[in-house]
């Protein structure tokens, strides 16, 4: 049995589509179809049933999955043994868009410098990733999954605060307490598109309505930067939005966690274990660096305010 045929079989099984599987492997759909048919002929079994929704596994196809995945693990292990200490090949990381936009690019750049043969794909989607279908090799989540076979590792806690652009704050009365928030425009998630309860930020501020909403934290941050109102912002994203500053930081402070999820059957892969550890360590370093920038900027602003006050005495 040809391993390459099994690789194609696994891609179709996970994507449930010849075209999607082909895009992932860099092949056209017709080639994928021919290779699946060749494997079925060689085995004397029908592995897929074509349905209106795509390619569904038959009982025979389902029975082949664990054997194909074992071959996949063995092939990766052989590659690791031959390539030595360096990490090579493709790595697909799924992440919520805040992490994907403001943390993973710097981490990916560092990992690719350290491992020139490594190719990294960052998939930023506002939803939970399905690792059993190999939508990603590993995923970063904002809450610990309660079900499934994924291997779960807590990476790090992070901070979020209410924030606004300095121009918005100049145009409105001072905000010294939660009571002063009444009448302000709030920015947040589209309520029925909150895919994880940990993202229901505005509820913790006491606000019951947002005038401008998006399913993307990056869009929310840009709206805040444009002066559209106040919203909850990741501290690690603030350095990417000049002029945005925390509001009522001592009163409204949220803590959340990032979790690293890996398929439960990849624990035998030394390569993925090493990649997972590099990702976890790299995220901790980068998040700490960015959050420290916010603290330093606030200290500089406070010192400048005190100096101006003393100069006016």
UniProtKB/TrEMBL annotation:
Residues 1-58 form the HTH lysR-type domain. Residues 273-300 form a coiled coil. PROSITE patterns: HTH_LYSR (PS50931). Keywords: Coiled coil, DNA-binding, Transcription, Transcription regulation. InterPro entries: LTTR (IPR050176), LysR_HTH_N (IPR000847), LysR_subst-bd (IPR005119), WH-like_DNA-bd_sf (IPR036388), WH_DNA-bd_sf (IPR036390). It comes from the Bacteria. GO terms for molecular function: DNA binding; DNA-binding transcription factor activity. Pfam families: HTH_1, LysR_substrate. PANTHER family: TRANSCRIPTIONAL REGULATOR, TRANSCRIPTIONAL REGULATORY PROTEIN. Belongs to the LysR transcriptional regulatory family. This is DNA-binding transcriptional regulator, LysR family. It comes from Paracoccus alkenifer.
């Amino acid at each position: 049995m040809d391993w390459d045929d099994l690789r194609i079989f696994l891609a179709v099984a996970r994507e449930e589509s010849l075209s999607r599987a082909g895009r992932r492997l860099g092949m056209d759909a017709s080639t994928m179809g021919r290779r699946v048919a060749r494997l079925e002929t060689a085995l004397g079994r029908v592995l897929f049933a074509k349905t209106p929704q795509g390619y569904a596994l038959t009982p025979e196809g389902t029975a082949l999955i664990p054997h194909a995945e074992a071959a996949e693990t063995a092939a990766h292990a052989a590659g690791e043994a031959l390539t030595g200490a360096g990490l090579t090949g493709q790595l697909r990381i799924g992440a919520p868009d805040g992490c994907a936009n403001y943390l993973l690019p710097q981490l990916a750049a560092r990992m690719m410098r350290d491992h020139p043969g490594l190719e990294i794909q960052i998939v930023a989607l506002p939803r939970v990733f399905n690792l059993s279908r190999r939508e990603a090799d590993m995923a970063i989540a904002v809450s610990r999954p309660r079900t499934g076979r994924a291997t779960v590792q807590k990476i790090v806690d992070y901070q979020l605060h209410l924030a606004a652009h300095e121009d918005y704050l100049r145009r409105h009365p001072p905000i010294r307490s939660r009571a002063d928030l009444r009448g302000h425009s709030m920015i947040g998630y589209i309520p029925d598109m909150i895919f994880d309860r940990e993202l229901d930020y505005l509820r913790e501020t006491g606000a019951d309505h947002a005038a401008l909403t998006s399913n993307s934290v990056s869009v929310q941050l840009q709206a805040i930067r444009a002066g559209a109102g106040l919203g909850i912002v990741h501290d690690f994203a603030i350095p990417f939005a000049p002029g945005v500053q925390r509001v009522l930081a001592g009163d409204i402070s949220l803590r959340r966690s990032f979790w690293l999820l890996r398929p439960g059957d990849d624990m035998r892969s030394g390569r993925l274990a090493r990649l997972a550890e590099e990702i976890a360590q790299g995220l901790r370093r980068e998040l700490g660096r960015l959050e420290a920038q916010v603290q330093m900027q606030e200290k500089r602003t406070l010192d400048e305010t005190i100096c101006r006050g003393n100069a006016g005495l």
